[in-house]
Amino acid sequence: MGNLSKIVAKPCNRKSLKVMGFMLVVLAFSWSGILDLFALSSIDGAILDAGILYGLARAINSAVSVLQTLEVSVVVANISIGEALDPINDLIERFSEVMTYALGSLAIQKVMMVLVSDKVFNVLLTASFGMFAVAYAFAKDHMPLALKVFALMAFIRVSFAVVVLLNSAVDAAFIKPQEVKYADQVKTLESSISKGVENLQSAEADLQSAIHQEEQVLADLRSEESGLLVRITELRDDLAMKEQRLDAMGASEGVFDRLTRKRSAQEQKLVDEIEAVEGSISALQGRLELNTDKQETVQEEVSCIRKRADGGTCSVGEWLESKVSLPNIKSKVDAVLESMGDAVESFIFLMAIMILKSIAIPLAFWLVLYKGMKSIWNYDFSKVSS
User: What pTM did the predictor assign?
Assistant: First the structure.
């Protein structure tokens, strides 16, 4: 304390005392953490915005993948759905990669801010001030080095937060309005595509359900046809046996005698059975013809479903509209593709914006910070401490 009073009393040491006073102000400001709160809040906001955009990109990418896997035989301008969506899918993948780098850059900035704003760093900064004070009072030869260490640490302590805030100010003044504009467009696109995919999946489900129902009907008809053919074959075999028995009964008689004589009861019974079998065969053949007609109708109905799903028309009639509410799948695919095409510009501009605000501008500021640190370390502090 006595040494400090002597130092204060010496006019030649007033410059050093001003430096020491400035150092105390820096210490007080560092411990207060005012800049840190604003800087960390700014980084958290940027990370949140980037995370939302990344989530939207992944959601759109997922919707595109769903579209590419839908089993819909739709052709748009002679290009399949998967081929039409490949360029857009690639763009969204590139956008996701850019957002990953942007989030990584913001995370690094936050980690650096947390490190320099931690109490441990403040303690080290205070210790460097103590080293300067001790060197000033007892070892003036070491005072320039102690001052250099303190100045470097103080510059790092304050400038990290300043860099983040400057980056945030540039973002708010020049970049944020455009980012909000294109981000809103991407949000609208994500909502539109998700709804379109849901409608398309519903339409695809209706299509498959309608086709499945008709195919089940067709399978039942074919099963019935097989049963009818088997029954007709059995009846024909039975008819042939009965006719052979009837022929055998009059084999010894001439043709005239068989036509003129009265049939026996056994012969008449056999003739009645033959007529009954012939009637059954005729009825089954009628059912078989009706079954064949129904199969042709069902096959035409299935073909009609597929044509309407492709946006075409069929001549079977308007049975489909009353039987199943099947949306026009091709028009839904066209609408989704059109929405994605309109969003290409938004993705491109957002990529440029995120590269600029999260990587390019911060790198420029960090480069300036590095130059400042280098200048401080190379500066001759013996002039200040003399």
Answer: 0.61
